[in-house]
Amino acid sequence: MAALRWLTPRRRSATARSVLAGEASAEAARKSSQEAPGTAPEEPPFPVLGDDRAAAFFDLDNTVMQGAAIFHFGRGLYKRKFFETRDLAKFAWQQAWFRLAGVEDPEHMQDVRDSALSIVKGHRVAELETIGEEIYDEYMADRIWPGTRALAQAHLDAGQRVWLVTAAPVEIAQVIARRLGLTGALGTVAESVDGVYTGKLVGEPLHGPAKAEAVRALAAAEGLDLSRCAAYSDSHNDIPMLSLVGHPYAINPDAKLRRHAREQDWRLRDYRTGRKAAKVGIPAAAGVGAVAGGTAAAIALSRRRR
């Protein structure tokens, strides 16, 4: 009948013709889909439910949490009179710089780590672990990105293990991982003797290529297939870690990582502005010394301190 109406000499309004064209197009599309079911490509579900050889690795600063964990930790230590006001001003400036720049400058982060090591030197490990729990509640809990938290939960719901991988002290990272219900954390290990911090590191900071080596070591120990694993980060410094897995994701990426991710066709998600990149994915979720440092950090998870 629709075809007969088009043959009549009576003029029809543009609106009516548009509606008719739309209905005809929809009908043709419906018939086409019925005639050739399953021809439209569909992205396989991810994470894969029950894949126990897959895991997810999440950077912490600006990926899981706004800002840098070590800065928030320093703020909590100042409150407990671990250091003086001039040191707090330094921490505040470092935090402001980090949040404005949105990237990890190796020299800048080294300065931060040196400051933190000097502050905790002589203190007991158990003391800092207890304080870390308090500081998480005071300064960190409200800074977790809900979107990234949902991504981690999707992996957990699929029965997969989820690890934080960060240059932050491992004690802080472990607190955050535990509070978020994650499997565990890889972090920078500060040396301690008889339960007291010496002010030195074990190996190197867990940064850049060291993260990739830590993930590689952990995957070997846990029997994981890295081609089935996922990794998430905001920083171009973590490209080695992201390149190691089969499912890399750029979260709140800096300019260099965003450019690299687009070139490599990696998925992106940006929670800072609410906008999403074209390839979102996850439908279930709304140099020298690097090798030694990364491996040391991975092994230190299960090694008793001297």
Tally of contiguous helical segments: 12
Strand order of the largest sheet: 3-2-1-6-7-8
Mean pLDDT: 76
Q: Would you report the number of β strands?
A: 8
What percent of the residues sit in helical stretches (DSSP H or I)?
40-55%
Give a quick set of tags describing it.
six-stranded parallel β-sheet, single chain, disordered C terminus, two-stranded antiparallel ribbon, 306 residues, 8 strands, alpha/beta, 12 helices, disordered N terminus
Describe this structure in words.
The protein has 306 residues and is of the alpha/beta class. It is built from twelve helices and eight strands. The protein has helices at 2-7, 14-35, 69-79, 85-101, 106-120, 125-140, 146-157, 170-179, 209-222, 239-244, 255-264, 290-300; strands at residues 55-58, 161-169, 184-188, 190-193, 196-201, 230-233, 247-251, 267-269. Strands 3-2-1-6-7-8 form a six-stranded parallel beta sheet, with helices on both faces. The protein has a two-stranded antiparallel sheet with strand order 4-5. Helix 9 (209-222) packs across helix 12. It is globular and about 55 Å long.
